[in-house]
Amino acid sequence: MTSTVNIPQDLLPEDGRFGSGPSKIRADQVAALERGGTKLLGTSHRQTPIKQLVASIREGLGEFFRLPEGYEIALGNGGASAFWDMACACLISRRAAFGTYGSFSAKFAKSAQSAPFLEDPVIYESEPGTWRLPEFTEDVDAYAWAHNETSTGVAAPVQRIAGSLEQDALVLVDGTSAAGALPVDVSQTDAYYFSPQKAFGSDGGLWIAVLSPRAIERAQAVEHSAKLEGARRWVPPFLSLSAALDNARKDQTLNTPAVATLIMLENQVRWLNDNGGMDWATARCAKSASLLYSWAERSEYAKPFVADVNARSHAVVTIDVNESVSAKQVIAVLRDNGIVDTAGYRKLGRNQLRIGVFPSVEPSDVAALTRCIDYVVEHL
């Protein structure tokens, strides 16, 4: 579609990337690739230079998440979707309960439903735009949900389900679009896992997990039982959480990683910690999100999609647009003017904008975006 609206240069943000994942990658991260290219790219991930890079990532994430005693950082190839299958293979002993309230929070539950060695999960569901945690359930050994539902812009609490410790049930929380953008106390979880292409400003294809001692013990026990004669469960090496952790303790991954992703991730983690860690990052995201929600509440043609103020995400902001205005056309004009990735989640099917406000995004650019949207709507 050809733009019929040219946004004045003095209204445009300095950087027009507002993706909900992949998200904005800072210029210094790209420069880090250039600086480390000849020493790191195209070399073995089992040699000292790459192992030092992984060690820095693990140490930096431990600092960022204020790692409780006994918790460890593991990582491996495949992204969060691979970790769903890994959790089915190694962390759910028999049956899990899930909170589902959008496309991504439902995907882990679907993985558990398809695992032939697990019983059908118990699913606690709510409508898009809301959240629902799993409730205490007698016969489950794991509870799972998403900290942030990327498809709808809903942020859910991260807290242990009452009674879960007494029944020795793990808490598994998907932090993919929340980690680095929303506050979290990882001691309330046994596995807080995510991919780095959101707040950590890297490419996808990698999973990272903050694991409790209970999760580590569960994986070891489940994987041991899977090796016994007559066992129904098969844990392939790629999905072995114990193998992933063993390699992480050696500052490497089981399989060859994308070294460029590691370089950008390491640079981002250092940047976040140097600026004040989780407190700084989450306050920055909250400021950007507030600019958008306040603008939408004042607008005559837009409003926040998530009705509950306390459930509105500070990582991914969803804004409904009146039917008199075509969000699709607004998004196309913005893209023609260099402002990209503001489209709503396609499967949600709403007349909507969806805007990533991760730490790399400047709040001043978010403010500029609101002015640009107003300009486009006025001139269409």
TrEMBL record:
Pathway stated in the Swiss-Prot or TrEMBL entry: Amino-acid biosynthesis; L-serine biosynthesis; L-serine from 3-phospho-D-glycerate: step 2/3
**Which reaction is the catalytic activity of this chain?**
4-(phosphooxy)-L-threonine + 2-oxoglutarate = (R)-3-hydroxy-2-oxo-4-phosphooxybutanoate + L-glutamate; O-phospho-L-serine + 2-oxoglutarate = 3-phosphooxypyruvate + L-glutamate
Q: Which residues form the Aminotransferase class V domain?
A: 137-344
Q: Which GO terms describe its molecular function?
A: alanine-glyoxylate transaminase activity; L-serine-pyruvate transaminase activity; O-phospho-L-serine:2-oxoglutarate aminotransferase activity
Q: Which UniProt keywords apply?
A: Amino-acid biosynthesis, Aminotransferase, Cytoplasm, Pyridoxal phosphate, Pyridoxine biosynthesis, Serine biosynthesis, Transferase
Q: Which domain of life is it from?
A: Bacteria
Which intervals of the chain are annotated as region Disordered? 1-22
Q: Which GO terms describe its biological process?
A: glycine biosynthetic process, by transamination of glyoxylate; L-serine biosynthetic process; pyridoxine biosynthetic process
Q: What's its EC? A: 2.6.1.52
Entry cofactors: pyridoxal 5'-phosphate
Which intervals of the chain form a coiled coil?
Answer: none
Q: A single Pfam family, by name?
A: Aminotran_5
Task: Tell me the protein family, please.
Answer: Belongs to the class-V pyridoxal-phosphate-dependent aminotransferase family. SerC subfamily.
Q: State its role.
A: Catalyzes the reversible conversion of 3-phosphohydroxypyruvate to phosphoserine and of 3-hydroxy-2-oxo-4-phosphonooxybutanoate to phosphohydroxythreonine.
Name this polypeptide is given: phosphoserine transaminase
| Native source organism of the sequence | Bifidobacterium goeldii
